[in-house]
Amino acid sequence: MIETICDIGKIVRKTDGEIDLVDLWQKEESGDYQLILDVNISDDSVRINSRDFEKKVFRDGLLYSQGNWFVGAVLKKESLKDSKIKDCLKFIDVPLDRFDEVKSLIDLSLKDYDGVNFVILFWKNGQKPIEIVKNKFLREIEKNGLKKEKLSGNCQICNEYTDTLYDSIVYKCYTNDKEIFSNTDGISYGICKDCIFDVLYGRKHVNMFLSTWWGGSEILFLPHTYNEEVKEIFEFSKIGDLREGKNLLQQIRENECDVINEIGKCGTDVDILFYSAQKSEWKITYNIKDVIPSRFSKIAELEHKYQSKSGENLALWQVLAYLLGNSSKPSEIFNTNEAKNFLKNIFHGNKINRNLFFSRSMSKYKHDYFEGYENMFMLHRTYNFLVDCGCLDKGWCFVEQTSRGYSMVKYEDLEEFFDFNKGFFDSNIKKAWFLLGRLYGKMIQESKSYKGGEDKQSNESHLEKNFFFGRKYDFKTFVYFSNQCSELMYKYGVQNKGYLKDLISTSKELMGAGDSKLSSDEAKYIFFWGMQQWIGKSKDSNNNNDGADQ
């Protein structure tokens, strides 16, 4: 990681030019402040004035803090302590015998700002700290921040000999390759000045353009090769509302498909790093290494292929919700290691346990079903997306590409349906469960008609009660459902309808003695799929089995 960031820094220095070490070193300060209190200390007086808050106050005051180390002449309200005030005075070379005078006037002024969030900037003789002690700040950074040492040797990054080594790799906390840059004679790390500055440039660029908040996690995208073309892709987004001026990764939550497609255009492998950040400390918690550009392009293509009927692209959080079997929100979906493992499988095309997928996905479908989302459209999108990604086997023809894009595949009859989908229906038991599902769905319609007439199809049938989800979908359940449907056909007076007779006889024939094995959850998926799949030459808009998008 450190070498990658160093390489990024070299490109940034080359294309953007040199910038001040103050701007390289300082980090983005957080906090919702309203006012700046300017404490101007002259040789014979102390004056305090207030003005509206501006972020540049932290640069003007040369603030930097990390852990117990503090340098600068700016204090936030929550850090207003006697010891910190003295540090600020010493930093701008104000004698400490002025402390009592300064402190008493600050205390007096604070009575007027009770309940107001502010920062204090210390001035000396009408000059800001950056105007009078900037070199002092830079020396302090090199000494305590970058740990400049009077030691010579070869740089651990570029291997060039240098008279002065820096005992730092800039990142103070855990990174996944920190141990590589260690065990140098006399110091922990040995980096030359050029490389330490490259890392600083790289870190600033990474924080601005290669990091984002996605699915509840802080994430870095680190391309292995960085050049001007890749830099431009990440810096200047060509998607979304261009007037907002967002960079590429800032668009990922609203335009995931387009952003992933753009990353695929970089032409280089990319590491996806999850990290946790707390104040100045952070560490990598998970790493998806070496994602090739074609995988980004492939995933983006599939997210578009399996879009909703309203044209909204499929998103990875929706896929993971079925893999996890819960109703995680988009803002928290990547929070567990299991979710990250699934994401790694998707980006690398690794196999996912088939039985686990159907167990989890049918658990989520059950929850959604009883929340009123009976349609399997989303589950079908997820399943076929994972098949096309290489994570599952045995896809089926759910959508097809036309001259106008992608559209739902239409089937004129069952024979055509099974013929087109031989890859999925590779056993008679699967066909049997599908046909039984179709029969069960037809009997739900017959039940509603029997109870309330054709105009009362909205009435719930007892066949739709909770019990049919809770059963284990094995041979015993198959026989039970078949017998139930057979009995109801006579009860409702529809025993002579040819298509019903064909469904029940063919499904039983295909099931046979129940010797073939199929996981209960996959059988359940096929059963409900059979209940809903439209097969026919035309679709009656008043009897739309596809339902609405979820």
UniProtKB/TrEMBL annotation:
Q: One Pfam match, by short name?
A: Cas_TM1802
Q: Which NCBIfam families match?
A: cas_Csh1, cas_TM1802
The name this protein goes by in its record: CRISPR-associated protein
From what organism does this protein derive?
A: Methanosarcina mazei (Methanosarcina frisia)
